[in-house]
Amino acid sequence: MTRLQSILSESCPNCHNEKVFKSKGHLLKMKFPQMHKKCINCQYTFEKEPGYFFGAMYISYGLCFIEGMTLFILSRLFVDSIFDFRVLALSITTILGLSLYNFRLSRIIWMNIFTKSPQKS
Questions:
Q1: Domain total of the chain
Q2: Rounded mean pLDDT for each run of 10 residues along the chain, 121 residues in total
Q3: Cα–Cα distance, 75 to 85 (Å, whole number)
Q4: CB of 46 closer than 8 Å to CB of 21
Q5: In terms of residue numbers, what domain contains 104?
Q6: Model-level pTM?
């Protein structure tokens, strides 16, 4: 399995077999995603040290920026004015709606950046 497949399937960056998150979270119930401490299959520790995922915030910011710019460009096809309340409301709704997905995805990307591929024997 490649790194991209591991990221999209939200699986362990080391063995690519088990899921990293116990639950995906729920925005309306105000529940955040729950991570396993270690991989069930290979015992890989996901959080290496306190503050390990601070860098994932930058990735999450980048994801929000890309989503916001894509939405803005697409909205320009349908709305004449840049300062339209509908565009603002749609942007805020989209960013909030994708926030838990961005949270999970940014952590998975961060772990994959700093995980060496296992040696094949």
A1: 1
A2: 82 86 76 84 85 90 89 80 76 85 90 73 40
A3: 12
A4: no
A5: 3-113
A6: 0.80
